[in-house]
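Long-time lurker, first post. I've been practising inverse folding by hand and with some scripts of my own, and I keep getting stuck on stretches where the structure tokens seem ambiguous. Below is the full token string for one chain I'm working on. Before anyone asks, I'm not after the true native sequence, just a reasonable design that respects the backbone. If someone could post their per-position residues I'd love to compare against what I wrote down in my notebook.
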């Protein structure tokens, strides 16, 4: 994957701002974030928007953005300037105008009966593809149903070195969108901010807390990746994790202890955690190990 330069990052911000102004008023929050991720991924990978016979392939674009129904003409008109801008930025020929000539429609003498699909809501599919409890509907086009373990669209022929590149690569490989992935791994009642996941994808931040590492483990499980796949690609490997449950221990001591606690410290029984804390205090913090030299 090509490295991002200043021009790429600046253009990503411009496209994101464009979406906030032009797409946000006519699309749901989920679809807005999906479109942002799709456009930004085109910039990061320096990839042309999907074309069909020289025209924008709106069906493929809609699928890539997690839009289940056909994109409305209004959404296409608002999205097209961003796609044209990406083509210009890539120094590619502009796409032909997609002018749809409406055909005269025959009068419909039948009154269509309401069907299940006309009021269908997004559904979460389990590993056996059995629909679970439907989610609440939101305005605008609905996201695709969720599968617990989606099938990859292509074999993993690359293994990006950086965390951001690897995360984007795996999302694309399994046909997920940013919002689709978020809905798949966040459980009901959890308050993990979707913007945190987006900041990882955009390279603005990296996971550093216990909660974030738990999210990475869920993504690895969803994509059937080796445990610790994403953690091994994170920068600043020597940094300690935030968010350990240390009770009423002072902040200063928390910082010293955090360096020596296992990642799964919070999931261990209380007696085991007390044993680890006692050992760290006695052997490392107050002992005569090399740690005392620094």
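-- Answer (accepted) --
I ran through it position by position. Result:
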């Amino acid at each position: 994957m090509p490295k991002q330069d200043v021009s790429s990052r600046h253009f990503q911000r411009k496209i994101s701002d464009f979406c906030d102004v032009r797409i946000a008023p006519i699309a749901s929050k989920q679809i807005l974030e999906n479109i942002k991720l799709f456009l930004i991924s085109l910039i990061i990978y320096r990839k042309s928007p999907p074309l069909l016979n020289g025209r924008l392939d709106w069906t493929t674009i809609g699928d890539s953005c997690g839009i289940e129904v056909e994109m409305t003409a209004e959404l296409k008109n608002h999205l097209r300037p961003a796609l044209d801008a990406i083509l210009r930025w890539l120094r590619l020929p502009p796409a032909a105008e997609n002018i749809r000539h409406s055909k005269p429609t025959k009068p419909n003498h039948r009154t269509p009966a309401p069907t299940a699909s006309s009021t269908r809501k997004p559904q979460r599919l389990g590993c056996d593809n059995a629909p679970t409890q439907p989610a609440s509907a939101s305005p605008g086009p609905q996201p695709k149903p969720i599968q617990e373990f989606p099938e990859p669209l292509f074999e993993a022929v690359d293994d990006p070195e950086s965390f951001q590149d690897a995360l984007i690569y795996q999302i694309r490989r399994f046909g997920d969108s940013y919002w689709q992935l978020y809905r798949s791994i966040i459980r009901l009642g959890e308050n993990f901010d979707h913007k945190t996941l987006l900041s990882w994808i955009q390279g603005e931040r990296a996971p550093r807390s216990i909660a974030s590492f738990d999210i990475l483990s869920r993504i690895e499980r969803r994509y059937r990746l080796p445990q610790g796949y994403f953690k091994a690609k994170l920068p600043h490997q020597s940094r300690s994790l935030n968010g350990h449950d240390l009770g009423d221990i002072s902040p200063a001591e928390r910082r010293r202890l955090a360096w020596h606690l296992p990642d799964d410290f919070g999931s261990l029984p209380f007696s085991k955690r007390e044993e680890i804390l006692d050992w760290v205090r006695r052997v490392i913090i107050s002992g005569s190990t090399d740690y005392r030299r620094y």
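A couple of notes from the structure itself: The CA atoms of residues 34 and 177 lie 6 Å apart. Residues 155-233 form a domain with the 434 Repressor (Amino-terminal Domain) fold (CATH 1.10.260). Happy to go over any region you disagree with.
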